Amino acid sequence: MEQRRPLIAGNWKMYKTPEEAAETAQQLVERVTGVTDVDIMIAPTCAALAPVFKVIKNSPVALGAQNLFWENEGAYTGEISAPMLKSVGCEYGIIGHSERRQYFGETDETVNKKIQAAIQVGLKPVFCVGETEKERESEQTFSVLDKQVTKGLVSLVSEQLDMLIIAYEPVWAIGTGKTATDAQAQEVHQFIRSLVEKNFGNALSDSIRILYGGSVKPDNIAGLMSMPDIDGALVGGASLNAESFSQIVKFKN
Ligand code: 13P
What we know:
Blueprint (H helix, E strand, L loop, with lengths): L6 E5 L6 H15 L6 E5 L5 H8 L4 E5 L16 H6 L2 E6 L2 H6 L4 H13 L3 E6 L3 H5 L3 H12 L12 E4 L13 H19 L1 H6 L1 E5 L7 H5 L6 E4 L6 H8 L4
Parallel strand pairs: 1-2, 1-8, 2-3, 3-4, 4-5, 5-6, 6-7, 7-8
Helix pairs in contact: 1-2, 1-11, 5-7, 7-8
The structure holds 1,3-dihydroxyacetonephosphate.
């Protein structure tokens, strides 16, 4: 089986001014120069994309957006399109984060349109899925994920999905300090991979990277990464500090 290259991604959410973001990016670059065995991405607020790109452009750190709209241009006040994100240096786009689903009305249908828009311009989608605490407690985790993954990828075919990344972020673990255990996360990642296999075949299910997100920290990353179906992490709080994020990036050391 092909070795999947780990991806450690930082979602900076609505934190840091452009100046602060560029400064943290610079501190990160200094700490990860020479890292060659892990893909690294940071997703600052869109106001900070261009200044952060200036700092990271010749480094191992890639740029990601936290959201995008599915049309390329038009009268859509306040939105930003996939081609615009590409043009300021983005390589990745986070799509369907639970905070967007919860506060900004994103649905499986809009997530699907956004994934298609990203793929069309060669922006790697980081497609987020995950169950709430209530859904887990009522044993709906697998059915919720089945619906999110299936509907989020509807009308896409495996040939289009080689740049897709899935991020499993249990909502109850985000910003709570309550990480899923290694075994809990592995169980769900294995399930997501089996869904990808069922819908798109085993070439894609073998190669697709599935990240875990939810209170990832320097002291729990190694355990998570030792699980066979966990291929990286989407980090919130601990990615805001260059030192802690670089420790997560260097989880093998
Ligand atoms: P925390 O790492 O702060 O729990 O956030 C996870 C997350 O939402 C990343 O997208």
